[in-house]
Amino acid sequence: MRAGRGGDPAVTVPEAEFRSYYGQPVLKPPVWHEPHMPVYLYLGGLSGASSVVAAAARFSGHDRLAFAARMTAFAGAGLGSGLLVAELGRPERFLNMLRVFKVTSPMSVGSWTLAVHGGLTAAGAASALTGLLPLAGDAAVMASALTGPVMATYTGVLLADTAVPAWHAARREMPFLFAGSALASAGAAGMLTTPRAEAAPARVAAALGAVMETTAAAIIERRLGLEGEPYHQGRAGLLIKASRALTLAGGLLATVAGRSRTLTAMSGLAITAGALCTRFGMLAAGKASALDPKYTVVPQRDRATGRRLVAVPDQEGGPDTP
């Protein structure tokens, strides 16, 4: 603390209280509804990762798993599209999003990916169910394996590309979190819908996805400072904790799930429940961080202060004292 004139100590400025103008948040909270958007985020990731599992199973000769993954990919894309349209309110709003394609817009890329991916999974499922045009069906599955990773991760990029503090601060890890969760979900679905003798690739996918999701979540918790608080508090905190416990338990059980149906069911259901808790928890954390102005004001003030310390020297040539 510097001395004032005459040797009197300078007056210390108290910490400011973070209040918004007329009690309004600095940011408008996300208007997405539950359960529409969280379940859509889950189904989109499930569909995308299941397409990759279907292609890998087709190549490796696991035909029962390939068939089940095809059906899962189609069901996820179809049901997810329905939930998205319900969230938008009118079907023509989704069609309006396809009028323009912008590589720099996650929403535009995601809309086109959903449309193309949904068509490919429908073609693959129709061929598998009817037995018609098997080569065309396999080609559709292979093509959907290319759109699948985008389908599984674009929603994470979409959240991170907003101004919502809790989401934007985790922009580096969010795509990996969603990719791991999607892979684990696809593995869980394969385990639950395929005989244990042919479900080994699904168990591997479930375990690897659980490790990837858990690792990304741990990095988020360690790296984020103030902006990470909403992930540990209130309803969001409970959902995130449940997600971590369920995903970790399901991933561990997947390594031994081939021994019995009971272990298979426990692993698959735990991973599925964990993936849903992740989506609901992410949405709740984002809303909480947008409603509280400190998650917007404090990080911006700290970043601005840091820039001044580097860029504005005092008269003696050293860094300016705050």
Characterise this structure.
The longest helix has 31 residues, at 261-291. The protein has 322 residues and is mainly alpha-helical. It has a single domain (28-301), classed as Formate dehydrogenase/DMSO reductase fold, CATH 1.20.1630.10. Helix 7 packs antiparallel against helix 8 (200-223). The model is unreliable at 308-322 (pLDDT under 50). It has eleven helices and no strands. Helices cover 71% and strands 0% of the residues. InterPro entries: NrfD_2. The chain crosses the membrane at residues 39-59, 65-88, 109-133, 139-164, 176-194. Pfam families: NrfD_2 (PF14589). Keywords: Membrane, Transmembrane, Transmembrane helix. This is Polysulfide reductase.
Brief sketch in words of this structure:
By secondary structure, this protein is mainly alpha-helical. It has one domain: Formate dehydrogenase/DMSO reductase domain (Formate dehydrogenase/DMSO reductase fold), CATH 1.20.1630.10. It has helices spanning 36-60, 63-88, 91-97, 106-130, 134-160, 165-168, 174-193, 200-223, 234-254, 261-291, 294-311.
Task: Please give a handful of descriptors for the protein shown.
single chain, 322 residues, Formate dehydrogenase/DMSO reductase fold, 71% helix, disordered C terminus
